[in-house]
Amino acid sequence: MTKRPSGDVVVVGAGMVGAACALYAARAGLDVIVVDRGPVAGGTTGAGEGNLLVSDKEPGPELQLALLSSRLWRELAQEKLAAAVEYEPKGGLVVASTAASLSALTVLTAGQRAAGVQAVAVDADRLRDLEPHLADGLAGGVLYPQDAQVMPTLAAAHLLRVSGARVETGRAVTRVLRGPGGAVRGVRTDRGDVLAPAVVNAAGVGAAEVAALAGVDVPVLPRRGFVLVTEPLPPRVRHKVYAADYVADVASDSAALQTSPVVEGTAAGPVLIGASRERVGFDKSFSLPVVRALAAGATRLFPFLAHVRAMRAYVGFRPYLPDHLPAIGPDPRVPGLFHACGHEGAGIGLATGTGLLLAQALTGSVPELDLTPFRPDRFDRPPRSPHPDRVAGRPDRAEPFDEETSP
Questions:
Q1: Which of 24, 44, 196, 266 is least surrounded by Cβ atoms within 10 Å, i.e. has the fewest?
Q2: Which SS3 state, helix, strand or coil, does residue 192 take?
């Protein structure tokens, strides 16, 4: 009988969230195997901008997760990882075009400050001290020093490398294996079984499919977004700069197209321009109206961009859950199943906090944040009680087995 690879935990998904889960689980002493049907960072991560933001979060559980993640990103940068992942603590600048939007932004920042966010009000006549090429006539803004940026594909690849996890790409999961009592025993892939008593679903927009393989529902849906990339430029945009209505678009439940200008430079020179949101399934078709809307919004913020060439546009899918909170932690419906998915457009920024919380849950430690708002089963009707046999403590190593039950 061919020996099947085994470990303490299988992480399904080699994007940014999966990489962070692997890193912190390995640092907690677990033997980690990462599997993905595609390459490292081949999904949402590879189509992202690399934002590490607290500025776009309203007070609540997601903001607390963002603050934890921001602290962990800074700690990783101090471990001499900054250059490897192109970590830039550039800060964010949110600008308001009208007195009404500035008033709403002021209310938002009051709640954010109470939660621990650094937010500095910027008068209209001081905006150009921060961004000399901004448009005239803006009503004011807020500077968020904690906002930062990484190069997402580099970050995912590097975190996986330093984790020491075994990474198996090009390996599609076809089944979540269950023992006679229903507990997870690993995963079946198109290239053989990978055994472990814990499975982490970090499959991004494929997370609903992985959950279904275990017999549970986690209603992750794709939300499409485009990004425009300009020709390389000398540094002209110093911060991540976006319009105040971007926060409302992030929190919106609308399936219709929404665009709000988001502009930021990169270490390599090109300027990245977003952001669009729409629910159109997995349709990757190029949309000229969306790209035109992005360009128009960007030039309203930075008029010089009207004379800059856009070299390309790319599209990605944000893994969206109905209440705009990710699913993080053990699934009480299936002992040994954990989830780390549904972060929508914030997965890069929230990955480190998610990875730490998952590692703490996997090893039976008390999580740094209350995981109740992120419960994977919160969409069940009626809510289900936690399973009495849920995994706690360091999982025992799984050995090859012959008996299994279907999900």
A1: 266
A2: strand
